[in-house]
Amino acid sequence: MPDEAALLIADVYEAAGALRRLGEQTAGAEGLTQARWQVLSAVSEEPLTVPQASRRLGVSRQNIQRVANDLVELRLAAYVPNPEHRGSPLLTLTPAGTDALARVTARSEQLHRTLFAAIPEQEIHATRASLRRLLAELDRHEGTAGKR
C-alpha cells in the first residue's frame, strides 16, 4: 500500500500542475493571471481583508497584498473602509472586476464540461469524495480540523 499511496501523491501533484497550467491559460485568455482570478473569486461573495483572503486561499498575506494592489491598479477591485478595523480595509470587486470574473468563470465552466465529458459523473463524485477524505486526514494530521 505505501507504493500506491506514493503513486497517488505523485498523481495528485501532476494533476495539480496540469490544472494550474490550464488555469493560467484560461485566465490569460481573459487578460488575467490565475492569481488575480483566484483573488477576484475569493472576494466575490463578500469583501474581505487581505489577511482574510490569504487564509481563505491558503497563501501568504504578502502574496495576496501584491495581487490585490495589482487588481486595484487595474480597477478590477477597490479597497473600501472596514467598519470593524480601520487599519485593514476590505477588498471588493468593481463592476469591471465582476465582469472580468464572470467572463473567466464562464470560460472555465465550458472548459470543465469539455474536459470531464469522457469521465462518468459517478467517477468524478467518487474521486472528489476520496480527495475530501484525504484532505480531512491532512487537516487532522496538521491539527487544523475544520479550517478547510
Give a description of the structure:
- By secondary structure, this protein is mainly alpha-helical.
- It is 68% helix and 5% strand.
- The chain has a two-stranded antiparallel sheet.
Kindly summarize this structure in a few lines:
This protein has 148 residues and is mainly alpha-helical.
Number of helices: 6
Strand % is 5-15%
- How many beta strands in the DSSP annotation? 2
Report mean pLDDT, rounded to a whole number: 93
Note poorly predicted spans: none
How many angstroms separate the termini? Answer: 27 Å
Keywords:
148 residues; mainly alpha; two-stranded antiparallel ribbon; 6 helices; 2 strands; 68% helix; 5% strand; globular
Please give the structural blueprint:
Blueprint: H1 2-28, H2 34-42, H3 50-57, H4 61-73, E1 77-80, E2 90-93, H5 95-115, H6 121-142
Antiparallel strand pairs: 1-2
Helix pairs in contact: 1-2, 2-4, 3-4
